[in-house]
Known about the structure:
globular, 9-stranded mixed β-sheet, alpha/beta
Amino acid sequence: MSNRLVSIVIPCLNVANTIERLVESLRAQQLPAGVEIEIVTVDNGSTDGTAELLRRLPVRIIEEAKRGPAAARNAGVRGARGEVIVFLDADMRAAHNRLIAEHLRTLDRHTDAGISGGAMTHDPEQRNLFAYAENATALFNWHDRLPVRELTFQPAGNQALRRSLFDELGMWDESLLYLEDFEWSQRVVRSGRKIYFNPAAGAYITGRESLGAIIYKFYTWGLNVREFYLPGRTSQVWLFGDNPRLFWVNAPLRMLNETWVTVKRWFPFYPLKTLLLIPLFLLYRAAWATGIAVGANRYFKKH
């Protein structure tokens, strides 16, 4: 009987500082009987020595000239040979040796599963507070202290799915440089599949340590909110959705709301640290809100 192959697809763009330890954590995985893995790395035009480092690691290497995480992941899927695809970001590492086994357990337990979503928690080895606050703000809904539950969105950094899903729904939208994972999650949910979050399928993420880089990241995340995020979040309250003159009022309101949710998700576990970091949460969300306003202005000019 042939073994079950799992393909782990990792987009790589200037990740020489982190990719090796991710690969090491994957090579140390305790796999269920009959399961094998292949590690598929997609070099997306790195200039920091990533390509040379990959050639020394036990991975398959695919080169993708078209920039963007969606293009890189699509290239990895096309080159993958497994029946299950696991997407991991290169700035992560497995939190323990059961990451892959937990993803498989979720997919096997739920026949209606479109995506097995795993926890993404700030790496405890990284002490930088800017980085900690970045991940607490961006990934407040996916840390490892939260319960098993159904979601409507799972970020691309740690998720698993059956290869057959791509044959049915198509590849990731390469026109999107931001929120491409949100668009993909919406397609999966619209197809009738469910997204199951399993905190035991955990990965640690290394955050940015430059305040400017973090602020820019949140700003770019806001740019596609009006066009792609808002239509998929019908349960949320957005004011003046089609009014180009008044839509901007949503920016400060969403900034305050998302900051509140961040505090609510983290306070039960780390109360003092959470309260002390509220100024950074607000700063990062202010950058995101600015992106929302700028992106909405562009959207209304096009429409």
